[in-house]
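Honest question from a wet-lab person: if I give you the sequences of every part of a complex, can you actually get the arrangement of the whole thing, not just the pieces? Trying it with mine:
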Amino acid sequence: MSTATDYLLHLADNALVLGQRNAEWCGHGPILEEDIALSNVSLDLIGQARLLYQLVASLQGGDATEDKLAYFRDTGEFRNYTLLELPHSGPLSGYAHASLDYGTTIVRNFLYSALMALLWEALEKSANADLAAIASKSLKEVRYHLRHSRDWLVRLGDGTDESHARTQAALDHLMPYTQEFWTGSPAEAAAFAAGIGVDLQTLKADWDGIVDGALTEATLKRPLLEGYVSEGKKGLHSEHLGFLLAEMQSLARAHPNGNW
Amino acid sequence: MTTSIEETWAALADLADPEIPVISLRDLGILRDVRAGAEGLEVVITPTYSGCPAMSQIEDDIRSTLKNKGISARVVTQLAPAWTTDWMTESGKEKLRAYGIAPPHQTPAAHNVVRFISRPAKAEAVPCPHCGSSNTVVSSQFGSTACKALYKCQDCQEPFDYFKPY
Ligand SMILES: [Zn+2]
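Yes, you can. This is the full assembly:
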């Protein structure tokens, strides 16, 4: 049972944390259409997270609920990729109050959606029938997220000098965090051994193909990957997740058992 | 005296979607089944999108409609098989068009991700629901809801929603 829940929490936390981050654009989008688009992507991601948390809660039994999983776990208990918790403010984050950078948002959504399009497709064959059903739904959604972020990646990369430079900077900043995709965790290994999960290595060639194709079209240069490999999926997070959770969880924690 | 499955279907036949009230839940393919369960009748629904905010409203609408007609049934949400716009009825598509929303194309047979992003432009021409012109362009991948994209007609200049194949 815990094999499945550990893995499901990783998938759920990914969706929730990126959903929360993207929702920060609600009311602040660069143009009205993108404001709406990002809010819709968020709604999909939070919907996926809810389905996964509901499944975890049903496996855990007792008084577990989706809300407890989302609102009453702390930083070290979250299992999302570090990539997804970073602010939308590029490499200066943590040093200066940088404004929301749409290039950062688009690059992150593209890198993650390209992975999830492949992963959800593979998870349609999961031995856990409930996860397979969630994967089928999520796959339909993520294909549109991927198309949206890829279109904008090309538009910004192959756009003005300013948009090109900012998108390249965002890519240089974020790409190293994708090394975490390809570095296994105990939860992933156990889920794969149980037939629930997927060996991510089998998706890498396709992911590289999607990324390289888009970067070429966007006239962007793929950075070399080296150095620190983040470990958010093992519970070791950047300082940014705490702030994100504080904002997301404070209302539920101020009114535990609240109903509205 | 128990209610029959046919009576329950009939009671729900005209129940409208809360977001696009010109189309019924049955036309949309959200209302999947009415069946005899272990504890009485079950009405089976399936969500359109994972995060569709209308789902709880839809459940409430079904419950209150059944209650008003004196029918006792449980509402069951089922995820698999995942909802697809291919389940939308032809009359439902026609109602969408008349309402100003371009109905979804047939979904492609293969779901291949790589092929999906390198889409052929021609296959996706979306006719304008107002004037019928195929000279239309996408202005946003996401419209007022996640299930729609925003298009603009180059001939009559009207913007319109396109219900995306899904
Ligand atoms: Zn027109």
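Two things worth pointing out. The mean pLDDT of chain B is 88. The longest helix of chain B spans residues 55-68.
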